[in-house]
Each structure stands twice: as C-alpha cells, then as structure tokens.
Amino acid sequence: MSLQNAFLGSLVADAVAMPVHWYYNRESLDQDYGDFSGYCKPKNFHPDSILWRSNYTPKSPKADILGNQAKYWGQRGIHYHQFLEAGENTLNLQLAAELYRSTILNGTFDPESWLKRYVEVMLTPGWHQDTYAEEYHRSFFTNYASGKPLLSCGISDYHIGGLSQIPALLASMEALDQNDPSAQLESVLSLIRLTHDHEYTLRAATDLTRIYHRLAHGESIRHTLTTLPLPGVSVRLLQKWENMDDREVVGNTLSTACYLPESFVAALHFTWKYHDDFSMAVLANAKAGGDNCHRGVVLGSIVAMQTGIPEVWLRKLRMMEKLRCDIQVLPNHKVLKKVI
C-alpha cells in the first residue's frame, strides 16, 4: 500500500484520540466519552490536565507561539485541545500536513527551508487553535528567540510525538517519486534531529521507516514484525498480549505515557493485534488513554498501509478538505488521488 495511506492513517488516528488525549484515569475517560465509535469534540473539564502547573513565558515576540491560548495555562481542568472540533487534528499533525504540503511545493525536503516554514506558521496568530504546545516547541522557540541559528534550536527529546511528522514526510517524498529507501531514511533522520535529537527517538524513527519500507513492498504487518529485527520488540510478547485486554497491556504492563522506547512498543501492540482492522486499531488505542494521539500516528500509519482506511473516517476528517484544496495547486494532481 501507498505511503499516502500511512499519512492519512496518522491523521485519522490522531483525530480519533484527540478528545481523550492524555487521559490517564480510564474511568474518567469512560465517564466523559463512553464507548465512542467515531470522532468526538473535546469536553472541558479535563480531569487529568496538568496545564494548571505548566508555564511558558516567551522571551520575546519571536517565541510567542501560544498567542491568545497563553491565558489558559495555569488553570485547572483545561482540555489540551479545547477549541478543536470533532475530526480535527492536534498541533503536531497540523504541522505534519504543512510539512507534506511544503515539501511537495518545494520539490524536495530541505531541513532549513522546513524550519523557516515551521517558524512562520507557529508565529502566525490563529494559524492553529490548539491550546497545548509540547515542550519541544517551547524549547525550540526559546532558543530561536535567544538568537541561536535555526538548525541549532532543537533539543534532545525522546517523546513519541517526535515521530508524528514521519508519515507526512515519507508520503511527500513518494508523491515526488523520491522512493530510494536510503534517501528516505536519511531525510527522516535529518527531520528528527531538527527537534528531537535523542538516540531513542532516532532509533524508533529508523525502525518505523524500515517497517514502512517492508509494507510498501507488499509484506504483511505480522510478517514484517516477525522477520524484521527491531531492538526491544519481542514478537513472543506481542503474541501473548493479543489475548489480553488492551488496557491491561497498555496501562498495567506497558505505560500509557509518551516516553520512548516503551511508547513505541505500546503502539506496536495495537498494530499487531488489530493488523487487519483499521477502525478497531485506532479506537482501541484511543480508549487506552495516555499519549494516544502520538501512539496513534505509529499504529494508524502502519495499519492503514495494509488495510486502507474506511471512507467514513476520511469523509469526516477535517484535514481532508485542506488536502483536497492542495491537489489543485500541487505540481502533481495525482497526489493522494487513490485515497481521495
């Protein structure tokens, strides 16, 4: 299956998980959203929100990435994505779509050009309506406002959110017929080093890219995970866990939190168990809580490459309208054609 499917699968999985993002108390999650089966609008109050103890004071206008969202930081119960609509993507995946768009328009992925675009959109008031911006964004713009060169503003970060733009990058390279596996991996690692230059994130990025390459050549998910050496990933455990309740696996056996490498293994649990059912994969992941949006990028992109994406998810995904508009201006109108 095409890497375009991987990109769209990442967007869908993020949007499904968005309203229950960073719920660690699953009883609260169930009470607030029930046994949902589609996109939902987030509710305020968020019982597990830690925005009340978070603070970000920009050093100058060059670091003001929160804009009118800053007033909600320091308050209790604020949902991280309170102003997003059902089917809308979180900030990291909105950036992924911007990366996809800009890479195709430029005809290639150039790290410095991407960082210039990243800075431009993040400092544009109202470009996004997301309340929360992860630590790596805040650190990057603090460094940028301090006068560091763009290519030196990133940090060493090992959150799974660092993988969120990989499907978009690879899909854009595929759309440009830049399909050499070595060149794709080199571009992925260049992207990761811009904001998440940590051995755990680079390792996970490498493994995720290798999985995509196997699937792009027609291998199945389970054959790929069985035969591809992945450090820290045990097929024996994946087989054991598929017979257990998902919340027992991700929540008790594995953490629901964002830190690599454990969060990558947690994503592969859903990938293995629901390898043939995209809807079950993204819903089960969302209902496990924790950093389900960024786990969703991993599992949603992988499973979508094997199964495709049911039309109902694409029809209600708000990013699709923007992508359809992009087709009219992108150099190659065949981009995304087979899935749109």
Classify the helix fraction into a percent range.
Answer: 40-55%
Mean residue pLDDT: 94
Question: Rg to the nearest angstrom?
Answer: 19 Å
Structural class, please?
mainly alpha
Low-confidence stretches: none
What series of H and E elements makes up the topology? HHHHHHHHHHHHHHHH
Q: Work out the helix count.
A: 16
Shape: globular
Largest sheet: none
Task: Tell me the strand percentage band.
Answer: under 5%
Query: What is the number of beta strands?
Result: 0
Intertermini distance: 14 Å
Write structural notes for this entry.
With about 350 residues, the protein is mostly helical. The chain contains 16 helices and no strands. The chain has helices spanning about 5-15, 25-35, 90-105, 110-120, 135-145, 165-175, 180-195, 200-215, 220-225, 235-240, 245-250, 260-275, 280-285, 290-305, 310-315, 320-325. Helix 8 runs parallel beside helix 14 (about 290-305) and helix 12 (about 260-275) crosses helix 13 (about 280-285). It is globular and about 50 Å long. The model has no long low-confidence stretch (mean pLDDT about 95).
